[in-house]
Amino acid sequence: MYSPATRLLTVLELLQARPGMTAAQLAERLEVNGRSARRYITMLQGLGIPVEAERGRYGGYRLRPGFKLPPLMLTDDEALAVTLGLLAARRLGLVGVAPAVEGALAKVERVLPVAVRERVQAVRETVALEAPATTLAPTTWLLLFSGAAHEGLRVQMVYRATDGMETERAVDPYGLVHHGGRWYVAGYCHLRGGPRIFRLDRVLRAALGEERFTRPRGFDSLAFAVQSFAAIPDRWLVEALLETTMDRVRGAVPPEFAMLEETAAGVLLRAYDNDLDHTARFLAGLGCSFQVQRPPELLDALERLAAQIMHVAEHGQRGVRAEILERTGAVGMNVTETLSADGR
User: Fold this and answer.
1) Residue 31 φ then ψ, to 5°
2) pTM above 0.70, yes or no
3) pLDDT exceeds cutoff 70 at 330
4) Mean pLDDT value of segment 23-43
5) pLDDT digits (tens, 9 = 90+) for 57-101
6) Which residues fall within 8 angstroms of residue 130, CB to CB, at 6 or more apart?
7) What is the pLDDT of residues 213-236, one digit of tens each?
């Protein structure tokens, strides 16, 4: 809920940006009735703000010509919204957007109060967006953890895990990440004795501590988060040696699905999956030969996939063939040759 003071300041900002707004227009923007909007105008006039009313078809409220407000007055939430919006615009990679974003951020920071400016700078330096944010960030936690990461201050928090268990832990936050529609903080967990990622919406309580820490040099919060997602245990641990180069396969393998490691013999793919039929279709769709290292059950899944495709090819069932190829993504891939590379 917006407070009356917030609405009063909003009226002032609207009149400065859009002279001639009517009471009905102000009421719509503030989500109040017309009587309340007119009351805010009266309150501004009572504070000595020269708000003038013009009657007639094109009338409305406006500030007296020559009256200027301070260049910018933002709350913490507003400054955070502006900063994240500009960072998301830069993340889109639009041509020529980087200089505009940097210029806008510099102007915003220049006119903000010191306390708010420091929070904005902390967000800029510690937040990584995989893509423009599509979910609302827990503002309190985002500001607290980004500030802690910026200042190198340990955070004491109560965290609820996936199974519902609540734990108290001390965390050295290294950075914040937006990935897959959720917000995370990456850092060192003193309870587990190693780097971890935590969902911000599962933080129940948090407070800055007095202990300081030094962030590891070159730590990439987004890269660490993506690797952590790929390493989450599932039913099957899959390892396959891809007979190709890293440059050719990197764009075809989502980093949250599998980890890739370049070796002398090719590219080692390591992933967790709970459906080996899905893994078989994914590997076949890469369009390169590969050798399955584990688990042996994956070879059975590949044989089933090969049998399906061979059956379609032999019987000429065009409709079924199209359905299978669409489902597997194995267009132009000879799965029989792939299996022969494994010695089966």
Assistant:
1) 60, 45
2) no
3) no
4) 86
5) 667 888 887 676 565 567 777 777 777 777 766 664 443 455 566
6) 177, 178, 179, 180, 222, 226
7) 999 988 988 888 877 776 665 567
Residue with tokens 């013009």: 54
Peptide bond into 216 cis (omega under 30): no
Residue type, 302: L
Q: What residue segments make up the domains of the chain, in order of their start? A: 4-63, 76-226, 231-340
**Whole-number Å distance between alpha carbons of 261 and 139:** 37
The CATH class, in words, for 4-63 is mainly alpha
User: In the sheet that 236-242 helps form, which strands lie side by side, from edge to edge?
Assistant: 258-263, 266-273, 236-242, 290-294
